[in-house]
Amino acid sequence: MSRDYEQFPDDDNGNVLWQMHEDGDDLDEAHEIEYSIAFTDQEQAERCALFLLNEEQKISLFQDDDSGVTEWIITIYVYMEPAYADIVDLEEWFTKIANQFQGEYDGWGCMAYVYDDEDEEENYPV
């Protein structure tokens, strides 16, 4: 099957969605997509987390020391069909929110379920 560049544009998001499609993932089914915002300041992370909760978003907040630099990571869980335009819209919204609280939008990812002869799970981070 040739790639439909209107559905799967030639950028990071389009490439990940195309790869998911090529791997057999059903993009017409809802997935729990995880969007991340990173902070160097705990107070700003907590303020942003409260803002997102007030916006009725499902989130988690944790401290990450793995990179040698302490960061606070907010993960926003959105249950949605992984459509390119919707992902781009949410990325823009989360980037705006991240900037408002001196954080940095850090991408999205989701578990993909591929059903072949054997059930397999793959993780697609962007």
Automatic annotation (TrEMBL):
Alphabetical list of Pfam families matching this protein: RraB
Occurrences of domain Regulator of ribonuclease activity B (ranges): 11-110
InterPro entries with a match to the protein in the record: RraB-like_sf, RraB_dom
Name of the featured protein: Regulator of ribonuclease activity B domain-containing protein
Organism this protein belongs to: Acinetobacter indicus CIP 110367
Upper taxonomic lineage: Bacteria, Pseudomonadati, Pseudomonadota, Gammaproteobacteria, Moraxellales
